[in-house]
Each structure stands twice: as structure tokens, then as C-alpha cells.
């Protein structure tokens, strides 16, 4: 048994969900369908795509505490090739404040309650007891990793873990991300024919239904967002009637469900690439 697998089993025994990372801190695709992100996940595999093989098979969604899964054939082979162990902080009831440089560490020492601290390559992870919505770039050099995210396991660190304070929770909501849909060019049908939708009502109904589908998702939000974007683009992406205002509405519905702007952007780009629009 190699060191990474042994660490993973020890963490799982403590009810900390784990997953293997390959070079570059990137998760493995644990099935053939996910090779080269064929399932629709982001290009670096850091977020799960709409894979049904039989369930989420990479990134934070794959993290598990089940020793039978961890030591199964596909996972065992992954651990043999792994360069690091990752864990899902939110799944363990934790929040990681990822401080990426000396300035961020100085800010944390002046503004955040002392807690368990783990050195990283460039900075520190500050661990708090409690989970919250993950958020990137809440301030320069500071990311929050909790639900729907993963972090590298770098040891237990030093200090006593404190309860998640309001000042950290507020970081994720004090500067809400501005919704900026990716620039997109839609191509008119060959021959320059008329829009097949005839009236704006058809498009409006489609966008409203897409918003509702995302809003009503109770699980698999990542997959729902991607599939909904795919459906909208397949129906409305080639005739020229889909505008940035419509895309903004879709991004807004996804962000209301906790999706990051970055994931929305990537999911939209992946859907466009899949359809060639």
C-alpha cells in the first residue's frame, strides 16, 4: 500500500471524504466516459460534469469515505499514479480559507480568529469548523473552499480549530460576483433563412423554462446547469435571436443555486463547443 492510499484510508476512517489528485492538482476521471472530459466537465476536471457512470466520478463529487470504493480497482490504480491526496472540506463539515501569499496571511492574522493552520507551498490553509458556500477571490490571494470544492491534504497543521466565524461567511457575500456571460457569436442558419422561432414569445418561454429547471434542481446542480445550457443552445443558439440578456438570466439562475461565475462560464463554453456554435 503506497503512502497516498494509506493517508486516504486514514482520513476516510475519520469521516473526511477523499479523492486522488494527479499532477497539477487535477482530479482523475474515474471512468472511460470522462476521458478528455467527454462527459462535459470542465477541461481541467476540477468540477464534475453530467456523468452517469453510475454517478459523479470526478472532482469534489467523487470524494468518499467508503474504504471499499477507495480500494476498488479504478481507484486503486489512481492512487498508484496520484501525486497528492485531496479532500472535500464541506463533506467533512469544514471550511478552508486558502491564503495564497504573504500579504493574504498578514490580512488573515489581522482580521480572522486564530484557528488550525496548515502551511502550503505559497501560503497557508486556515481551517474552521463549519461549512459554507465556496467562493474564489473573495479578496486578493484569498479563496474559500468548503461545499462543492476540494483542497489538498497537507497534514494536520498546528493550533486549535475554531468555529467558522461570521467574518468568513460574510466574505462570500460581501462582494457578489458580477454576472458576465462569455462573449458568444451565434451563427445564422445556412442560406440566411428566417429565425424559425417566429415570435419572441417562443424564445421567452424557453428561457423561462430553463431558469425554472435550474432553480428547481435539488441535487446535481452542476449537471443540471450544463444540460440546461446545452438544451438552450441546441434550440436557440444558431438563429441569432439569443442575446446576452438571455444568457445573463441563465447565469443568474445558476449563481442563485450556488454556482460560481467561473463554472457558469465554463459550462456555457463547453455546451457551445459540444454543439459547435
Task: Report what the structure shows.
- The chain has 277 residues and is α+β, with helices and mostly antiparallel strands.
- Helix content is 37%, strand content 14%.
- It is built from nine helices and ten strands.
- It has helices at 3-13, 67-70, 73-81, 102-111, 166-174, 200-215, 221-236, 244-256, 261-275; strands spanning 18-22, 26-27, 84-87, 94-99, 116-119, 124-129, 135-139, 142-145, 151-152, 162-163.
- Helix 6 runs antiparallel to helix 7.
- It is globular.
- The termini are far apart.
- The model is unreliable at 175-193 (pLDDT under 50).
Give the arrangement of secondary structure elements:
Elements: H1 3-13, E1 18-22, E2 26-27, H2 67-70, H3 73-81, E3 84-87, E4 94-99, H4 102-111, E5 116-119, E6 124-129, E7 135-139, E8 142-145, E9 151-152, E10 162-163, H5 166-174, H6 200-215, H7 221-236, H8 244-256, H9 261-275
Parallel strand pairs: 6-10
Antiparallel strand pairs: 1-2, 1-3, 3-9, 4-6, 4-8, 5-6, 7-8
Helix pairs in contact: 6-7, 6-8, 7-9
Features:
277 residues, 9 helices, alpha+beta, 10 strands, globular
Summarize this structure briefly.
The protein is an alpha+beta fold and 277 residues long. It contains nine helices and ten strands. The longest helix is centred in the last third of the chain and has 16 residues, at 200-215.
Q: Radius of gyration in whole Å, from Cα?
A: 21 Å
* Order of secondary-structure elements: HEEHHEEHEEEEEEHHHHH
Number of helical segments? 9
Give the CA-based shape.
globular
Return the average pLDDT rounded to an integer: 80
The total count of strands amounts to: 10
Low-confidence stretches: 175-193
Structural class: alpha+beta
Largest sheet: 6 strands, mixed
Amount of beta strand? 5-15%
* Proportion of residues in helical segments: 25-40%
Distance from N terminus to C terminus (CA atoms, Å) equals 47 Å
Amino acid at each position: 500500500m503506497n503512502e497516498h492510499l494509506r493517508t486516504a484510508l486514514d482520513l476516510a476512517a475519520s469521516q473526511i471524504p477523499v479523492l486522488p489528485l494527479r499532477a497539477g492538482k487535477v482530479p482523475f476521471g474515474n471512468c472511460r466516459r470522462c476521458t478528455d472530459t467527454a462527459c462535459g466537465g470542465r477541461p481541467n476536471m476540477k468540477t464534475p460534469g453530467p456523468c452517469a457512470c453510475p454517478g459523479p466520478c470526478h472532482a469534489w463529487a467523487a470524494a468518499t469515505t467508503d474504504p471499499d470504493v477507495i480500494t476498488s480497482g479504478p481507484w486503486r490504480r489512481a492512487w498508484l499514479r496520484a501525486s497528492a491526496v485531496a479532500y472535500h472540506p464541506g463533506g467533512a463539515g469544514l471550511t478552508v480559507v486558502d491564503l495564497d501569499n504573504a500579504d493574504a496571511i498578514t490580512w488573515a492574522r489581522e482580521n480572522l480568529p486564530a484557528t488550525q493552520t496548515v502551511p502550503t507551498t505559497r501560503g497557508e490553509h486556515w481551517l474552521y469548523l463549519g461549512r459554507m458556500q465556496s467562493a474564489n477571490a473573495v479578496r486578493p490571494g484569498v479563496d474559500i473552499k468548503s461545499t462543492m470544492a476540494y483542497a489538498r491534504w497537507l497534514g494536520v497543521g498546528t493550533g486549535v480549530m475554531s468555529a467558522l466565524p461570521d467574518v468568513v461567511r460574510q466574505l462570500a457575500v460581501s462582494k457578489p460576483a458580477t454576472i458576465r456571460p462569455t462573449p458568444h457569436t451565434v451563427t445564422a442558419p445556412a442560406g440566411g433563412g428566417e429565425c424559425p422561432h417566429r415570435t419572441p414569445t417562443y424564445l421567452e418561454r424557453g428561457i423561462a423554462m430553463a431558469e425554472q429547471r435550474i432553480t428547481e434542481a435539488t441535487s446535481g446542480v452542476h449537471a443540471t446547469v450544463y444540460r440546461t445550457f446545452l438544451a438552450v443552445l441546441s434550440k436557440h443558439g444558431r438563429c441569432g435571436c439569443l442575446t446576452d440578456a438571455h444568457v445573463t438570466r441563465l447565469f443568474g439562475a445558476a449563481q442563485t443555486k450556488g454556482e460560481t461565475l467561473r463554472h457558469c462560464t465554463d459550462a456555457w463554453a463547453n455546451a457551445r463547443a459540444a454543439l459547435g456554435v
